[in-house]
Amino acid sequence: xxxxxxxxxxxxxxxxxxxxxTRPKARxxxxxxxxxxxxxxxxxxxxxxxREGYRIDADVLAAQRQYRNRTRPKPPERFADTSCQVVGTMxxxxxxxxxxxxxxxxxxxxxxxxxxxxxxxxxFVTDPTxxxxxxxxVAKREREEREEFAAATAxxxxxxxxxxxxxx
Length: 168
Prior knowledge:
Helix content: 40-55%
Radius of gyration: 41 Å
Structural class: mainly alpha
Shape: flat
Largest sheet: none
């Protein structure tokens, strides 16, 4: 008991009760901009520059928008083959065949394209919708054409305005 009384008497007053309000609170150190600081530390790399945010290419945004808004192809229709559903001795009326005339025409077209050095890959495309990259290339080409047209129009208007000014 004597030890408990001694510890209460010897205990610091700040440990008990509210904090002393007369004492000023410690303020955090001011944040110093490392680009404005004259102190250079050899082991620290500081990159300074004005942050303007990231910018995505307008052609990419246009291609993504066009890709999202495209019309989706219809799912394939699964038609039931009813050509051989004949009852009796007649058999199939229209047996499946290969159109040899169309196959020969296709082979001739392929040979003609190969002879000219053209690509025959377009002949095998079953889904003619453009991919997102192809839409990007189209959007980029259209933007470049608009810029060239605007530059040509500005140049034409500048030359016509200088031609209309009276010479003194």
